[in-house]
């Protein structure tokens, strides 16, 4: 059944309202841009909020150096087309400056290192509001995050002592040195984001769609074997599969899912089916179970 | 359809978290990994049933102590609607959290433990729901499995609650009574086989049938200007657009309007939503408006229909719910945020405290503590443009901000 999507308008109106509040209440806001679908959605919402004027704040990408090349190409084109200002700060620089230490081994990832680079950049530019694409449905603890979430000088979130948020009034009063993380799509689910991308015909990086890729299997998950970012043991055999990515974060901790969904409509269908299928099993769980099965068949153990 | 936001209310252990978990389970909204986690933890703890409250209690401290500390938002959808349920905690800061949860909700569920019936806490839950003028309230009489699914118990609780209803201030509130077992799943999503005497809707059926008219009050249009859009490009050289959200009712091109506080008259020239122009902007849409005349409008101003002005005053009286451990005292100064408009306010007088359990009022009050509800009057440094809360839920409400801590310390409903 095709679901009535008009409810997304309500979410869209709410997000635009929040983004406008940021521009009005803060001196130096910034939109944290990862190149992923959530931040691309945020850019579209920000465009809508200020049309026909340009988005009145820059985008900032904290680059782990482990991005999919498609994401970076996409980012640069988007910024160029919309005439936006883009700030890039690199995790590699934080590593070179000795501020953080690169992890090593099989599960090495730069995901955790990003925080230091981000906090330094916030301080460097004196940003007082950072717009991000986090959603409350992502994780249980996130479900309690406010829309305007105050962070102290150390970027800390005091989850037990949050400001109450009433009606749709957003209190952006802060002290010097504090900043606010703003989550305009707090109330969206993953499916909402995908449905919106479909409805609005928003362009997203190609890795979100099914494509042939050299991958290897580990712990029942599918990892990219291209670009050499993900550490791979020699005995972990490279195979080629039709896959897509559900998120496009740091390559080193972003697994692919087997998929034939080559268009946005098919991706939405796949996700919709997965979220309301029997006992709500997610398609990627199922797919990866299947992948595991395959791995066994191929005699890995 | 819009997204339906629902607040829950109930004392500790009445089964709020279990009820929400049950809804998620029966609507197949729990993903396999979440379900497995619930099964595993329930087993580890030696339960012989699934503890669905694990689905919503998110903070580590909550999982450890088995209680809900902060409001959690839970999302699920059916082919008909998208839902957001606020799971509100039942502990010390109860009133504060409930007011918060209810302020953004259009419907609410009050839980009653069938073994305990209507207790003092129920009065409070109902009082707050009524104070916030939630249009649709479901009284879920829970744990029916523990009272042999007895119709008599249900009827007794219903009668007691109806007596409470006779004391309410806001009469135009629809109230339904549903006997449920959150744990066993009776009448939550699926109709109960254990209570053939109950012929009404299940909880989910009830929510699914709610229509816009059942949950929204129609009021008059109010358009607070959030942001002035001046592109300063060749193409839009003289463009001055007023960005904001429409509250209460629709605005259309050609409408005669007045800009507050200047009282300048003009007409709506264009309504933009992104790059499209529209004839009408409907309630709650975030649009950009241009006016026929070159008037001076800035953030915090309000555009309203010329024949329907709000009250423009430098003082008001309101019911205030206090949310801070530092007391509110007469003479103290705060920031009042009314919609997007911020003004400096001084507490003029605390008239009386209102006991939220319908046990009356208390005069001679020297200050307000956490969770107190009272009638308070304020003096402002600038006028605001308000409606009474009973006529306009958005334009009749405000928050109070502490000038030192910057915290949101209270909420108010203008009388
Ligand atoms: N027998 C029975 N127990 C229930 C029911 N609903 C909740 N409980 C139990 O009551 C306790 C408190 O439930 P919980 O959902 O945590 O309550 P909350 O504090 O309102 O969130 C738990 O042990 C639940 O298993 C019910 O319908 N029947
Ligand atoms: Mg609970």
TrEMBL record, chain A:
One of its GO terms (biological process) is sulfate assimilation. This is Sulfate adenylyltransferase subunit 2. The lineage of its organism: Bacteria, Pseudomonadati, Bacteroidota, Flavobacteriia, Flavobacteriales. One of its GO terms (molecular function) is sulfate adenylyltransferase (ATP) activity. It is an enzyme of class 2 (transferase). Signal peptide: none annotated. Belongs to the PAPS reductase family. CysD subfamily. Keywords: ATP-binding, Nucleotide-binding, Nucleotidyltransferase, Transferase. Residues 29-255 form the Phosphoadenosine phosphosulphate reductase domain. Its EC number is 2.7.7.4. The keyword Thylakoid does not apply. NCBIfam families: CysD, PRK05253.1, PRK12563.1.
Automatic annotation (TrEMBL), chain B:
The keyword GTP-binding applies. InterPro entries: CysN_GTP-bd, CysN_II, CysN_NoDQ_III, G_TR_CS, GTP-eEF1A_C, P-loop_NTPase, SO4_adenylTrfase_lsu, T_Tr_GTP-bd_dom. GO terms for biological process: sulfur compound metabolic process. Pfam families: GTP-eEF1A_C, GTP_EFTU. Signal peptide: none annotated. GO terms for molecular function: ATP binding; GTP binding; GTPase activity; sulfate adenylyltransferase (ATP) activity. The keyword DNA damage does not apply. SUPFAM superfamilies: EF-Tu/eEF-1alpha/eIF2-gamma C-terminal domain, P-loop containing nucleoside triphosphate hydrolases, Translation proteins. PANTHER family: TRANSLATION FACTOR. This is sulfate adenylyltransferase. It comes from Seonamhaeicola aphaedonensis.
């Amino acid at each position: 059944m095709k679901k009535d999507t008009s409810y997304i308008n309500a979410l869209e109106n709410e997000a635009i309202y929040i983004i406008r509040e940021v521009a009005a209440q803060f001196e130096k806001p910034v939109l944290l841009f990862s190149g992923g679908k959530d931040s691309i959605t945020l850019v579209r919402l920000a465009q809508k909020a200020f049309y026909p004027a340009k988005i009145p704040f820059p985008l900032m990408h904290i680059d782990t150096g482990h991005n999919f090349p498609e994401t970076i190409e996409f980012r640069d084109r988007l910024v160029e087309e919309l005439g936006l200002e883009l700030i890039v700060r690199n995790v590699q620089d934080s590593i070179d400056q000795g501020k953080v230490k690169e992890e090593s081994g099989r599960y090495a990832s730069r995901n955790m290192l990003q925080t230091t680079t981000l906090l330094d950049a916030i301080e460097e530019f004196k940003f007082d509001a950072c717009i991000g694409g986090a959603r409350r449905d992502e994780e249980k603890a996130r479900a309690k995050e406010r829309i305007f979430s105050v962070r102290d000088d150390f970027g800390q979130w005091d989850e037990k002592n949050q400001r109450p948020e009433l009606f749709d009034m957003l209190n952006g009063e802060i002290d010097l040195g504090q900043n606010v993380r703003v989550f305009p799509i707090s109330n969206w689910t993953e499916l909402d984001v995908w449905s919106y991308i479909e409805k609005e015909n928003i362009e997203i990086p190609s890795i979100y769609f099914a494509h042939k890729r050299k991958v290897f299997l580990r712990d029942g998950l599918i990892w990219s074997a291209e670009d050499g970012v993900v550490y791979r043991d020699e005995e972990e055999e490279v195979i080629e599969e039709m896959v897509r990515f559900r998120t496009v974060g740091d390559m080193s901790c972003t697994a692919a899912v087997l998929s034939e969904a080559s268009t946005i409509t098919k991706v939405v269908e796949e996700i919709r089916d997965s979220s309301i299928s029997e006992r709500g099993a997610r398609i990627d769980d199922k797919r990866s179970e299947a992948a595991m099965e395959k791995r066994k068949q191929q005699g890995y153990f | 359809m819009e997204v339906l936001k629902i607040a829950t209310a109930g004392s500790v252990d009445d089964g709020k978290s279990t009820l929400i978990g049950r809804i998620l389970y029966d609507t197949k909204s729990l993903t396999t990994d979440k379900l497995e986690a619930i099964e595993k933890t329930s087993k580890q703890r030696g339960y012989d049933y699934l503890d669905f409250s694990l689905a919503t209690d998110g903070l580590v401290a909550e999982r450890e102590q088995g209680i809900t500390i902060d409001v959690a938002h839970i999302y699920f959808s059916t082919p008909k609607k998208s839902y957001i349920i606020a799971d509100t905690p039942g502990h010390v800061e109860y009133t504060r959290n409930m007011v918060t949860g209810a302020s953004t909700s259009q419907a609410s569920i009050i839980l009653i433990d069938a073994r305990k019936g209507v207790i003092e806490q129920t009065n409070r839950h109902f009082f707050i729901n009524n104070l916030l003028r939630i249009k649709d309230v479901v009284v879920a009489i829970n744990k029916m499995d523990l009272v042999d699914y007895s119709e008599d118990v249900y009827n007794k609780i219903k009668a007691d609650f109806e007596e409470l209803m006779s004391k309410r201030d806001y009469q135009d509130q629809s109230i339904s009574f549903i006997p449920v077992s959150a744990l066993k799943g009776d009448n939550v999503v699926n109709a109960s086989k254990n209570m053939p005497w109950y012929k009404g809707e299940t909880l989910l059926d009830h929510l699914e049938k709610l229509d816009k008219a059942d949950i929204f009050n129609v009021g008059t249009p109010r358009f607070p200007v959030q942001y002035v859009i001046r592109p300063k490009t060749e193409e839009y050289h003289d463009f001055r657009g007023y960005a904001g959200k429409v509250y209460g009712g629709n605005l259309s091109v050609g409408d005669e309007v007045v800009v507050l506080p200047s009282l300048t008259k003009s007409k709506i020239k264009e309504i933009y939503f992104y790059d499209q122009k529209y004839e009408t902007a409907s309630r709650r849409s975030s649009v950009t408006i241009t006016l026929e005349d070159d008037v001076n409008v800035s953030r915090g101003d309000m555009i309203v229909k010329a024949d329907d002005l709000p009250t423009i005053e430098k003082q008001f009286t309101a019911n205030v719910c206090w949310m801070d451990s530092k007391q509110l005292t007469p003479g103290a100064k705060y920031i009042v945020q009314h919609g997007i408009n911020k003004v400096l306010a001084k507490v003029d007088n605390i008239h009386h405290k209102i006991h939220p359990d319908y046990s009356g009022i208390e005069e001679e009050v020297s200050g307000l503590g956490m969770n107190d509800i009272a009638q308070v009057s304020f003096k402002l440094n600038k006028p605001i443009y308000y409606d009474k809360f009973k006529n306009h839920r958005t334009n009749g409400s405000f928050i109070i901000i502490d000038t030192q801590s910057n915290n949101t310390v209270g909420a108010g409903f203008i009388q």
